[in-house]
Amino acid sequence: MRIIVVGNAVVLMAVLAVFPACKRVEPVPAAPATQAGAPAGQPAARAGQPDAGAAAPPQAALTAPPAAPSAARTIGAASATATATAAPGRQPIVRAVRSGRQAGADRLVFEFDTPGLPAWHAEYVDKPVRDCGSGDPVPVAGDGWLQIRFTGAQAHTEQGESTSGPRRRALALPVARELVRTCDFEGEVIWVIGVASPNPYTPLVLAQPSRLVIDIAH
Question: 212 has which bridge partners?
Fold first, then answer.
């Protein structure tokens, strides 16, 4: 490189000598914009079209329609009756009476010692509730009285001892208030359930062991 000293010309020649060695930098064209989440090398999804990698929009949850209530088995003020299913020859014996609370109902269970049940009849009755032997009124708590009558049955041994527990028992349940046996005489066994109100009830027959179940709706 030649240097000529002519005042400010030195600077001019140095600048001219340096600039030819510099290369022009070309602007790099901007890469086409891609939608966030789109893989490199693939075009972004167009407006109005779903992104192939995007999750499908959530769908409304599907719920099954509620099942229809089994009103055919539920008894209101009407009565329910069934004939005997126990084999003839010996009277079925009530060997247990239980009570408890179920979802939406109070449950009473009458259990027998034979395959099958004696004939039975269930209905709401008016006061006074009476003892079957003496005919005397029997006090039973509540504002409704559901009577369960078993025909061709007994609730005692040959020695006269009760096989079904206390004759009268208080029930700490939402609807059923008291359970009283008003009869165990000459093949008739009657229990009366005192309830807070005469709500609909559902009788169920179960086997092994043989049971009549009464569910009183809350």
Answer: 110, 205
CA atoms of 102 and 108, how far apart (whole Å): 10
pLDDT the model gives residue 171? 97
DSSP state of 182: E
- pTM for this predicted structure: 0.66
Q: How far apart are CA 81 and CA 191, in angstroms?
A: 15
3-state secondary structure of 88: coil
Provide the pLDDT for residue 127. Answer: 86
CA geometry: angle 177, 80, 192, nearest 5 deg: 25
* 3-state DSSP assignment of residue 117: coil
DSSP bridge pairs for 96? 111
Per-residue pLDDT of 37-51, as tens digits, reads 433 333 333 333 333
Average pLDDT over residues 157-176: 95
pLDDT at site 78 = 75
Bond preceding residue 32 cis, omega within 30 of 0 = no
Neighbours of 188 (CB within 10 A): 18
Q: How far is 164 from 179, CA to CA, in rounded Å?
A: 12
Contacts of 31 (CB under 8 A, 6+ apart): none
Q: Select from 74, 68, 95 the least CA-distant residue to 215.
A: 74
What is the SS3 assignment for 148? strand
